[in-house]
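Notes from the 1:1 (GR / supervisor)

We went over the backlog. Supervisor wanted to see one worked example end to end before approving the batch request, so GR pasted a single chain during the call. The sequence is below; no edits were made to it. Supervisor asked that the structure be written out right there so they could see what the output format looks like.
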Amino acid sequence: MTRKIAFDAIENFRDFGDYAAGPRRIKRGRLYRSAHQAEATDADLEALRALDLSVIVDLRRPNERERSPNRRWEGFTARVIENDIGQVGDDPWHLFMQDSDLSPTAFTTYMVDYYRDAPFVDRHVDLYSRYFHALSEMDGPVLIHCAAGKDRTGILAALTHHLAGVNEADILADFLLTNDPDRFARRVPLMTATIEENTGRRPTEEAVITALGVEARYLDTAFAAIHARHGTLDAYLEEILGVDADRREAIAHRILD
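Structure output shown during the call:
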């Protein structure tokens, strides 16, 4: 299947369902992931409306939402899950760029450190937990997104796949679909200009592609950190995110064929 769904101005939008999940299969058209919708065109909004979304999970910080508020279609009724937890001071990404040498290695090191901590950040724990609760209760399609739809979103999509019973190879393959050459071609000039404007320095194309993409070791780092603290992903899901046996069964009922 073609997982990528083309929009005029919504990046990294794709269906992360329709994977084998043990003896069953995740339904198509139930689980979506993307970047923000702040630049959505009117045509994009009509396409979103047609998906009949029941829940949208906005994983961004409050300052990100204020800077780039999502556009909504007329008659919007989807439940929105977001929070303002832990927003103190400047955006850590912007602080990193100010102090960084903007090399590919610097971006990679930042991201590995980010993934090591991300599963335990209070804001993420709240949002991830509320997402899984909604997934167990709502019958319609769900969209999860952050700013670029690759890191916070990628971890949550991977956890969803694990919970559903998707094999490790498919979990990683879905995560790596963010590395879309067409997306890089569109975003590199824009991100280069933004970084130069914010720092007064111009990064190389290689560095910007590193910043825009993901690597297998990122997800491996997040999962290894979870295993180190909780023993298994399942224990993390239950102990930290509240996904007990009853909730897992309810989620399976709604997303699996």
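Supervisor's comment: The mean pLDDT is 96.
Batch request approved.
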